[in-house]
Design brief:
The protein is of the alpha/beta class. The protein has one domain: 2,3-Dihydroxybiphenyl 1,2-Dioxygenase, domain 1 (Roll), CATH 3.10.180.10. Helices cover about 15% and strands about 45% of the residues. Strands 1-4-3-2 form a 4-stranded mixed sheet, with helices on one face. Strands 5-8-7-6 form a 4-stranded mixed sheet, with no helix packed on it. β7 and β8 form a beta hairpin. The protein is globular.
């Protein structure tokens, strides 16, 4: 396994619930863990995240303020995936609500538009995940 240059580490309130969401529901893979400290390094189609159980022993070192739900306010994590359909099917099967329904968007990059189908879902702590599938490019 190769580490990405940027790997967000998310403090979570209940590591068991987070693993049920990320691994069991969405299909992330546990790359490695330190179970004794409630730490898990997970990946999905090249995206990587670290999850760590919030407690005073392991992650108050970088707490900038009191952590209150929903966590991660003001940020969303975009995860590029091959297809959003399998994720949507899993979420629907488990009756897990979406934050934003799937839609097609086009984002300008210079004189080119980058197309994608994407949707947003919140994890059990409120972190916002944006799963995005490329639909190609077109001239502006």
């Amino acid at each position: 396994m190769r580490f990405n240059k940027l790997v967000p580490e998310l403090s979570v309130s209940d590591i068991k619930k987070s693993l049920e969401f990320y691994v069991d529901l969405l299909g992330f893979k546990v790359e490695y863990s330190r179970i004794e400290s409630g730490f898990f390094f997970i990946s999905y189609q090249g995206s990587q995240l670290m999850l760590e159980q919030k407690n005073k022993q392991n992650n108050d070192n970088w707490a900038t303020a009191k952590l209150e739900k929903p966590f991660g306010r003001g940020i969303n994590f975009q995860l590029e995936v091959k297809s959003i359909k399998p994720l949507l099917k899993r979420l629907e099967k488990h009756k897990y609500d979406l934050f934003s329904e799937p839609k097609e968007n086009w984002y300008r990059k210079g004189n080119v538009l980058l197309g994608c189908k994407e949707f947003l879902v919140q994890d059990p702590d409120g972190y916002l995940l944006r799963f995005s599938e490329s639909t190609g490019t077109k001239k502006k």
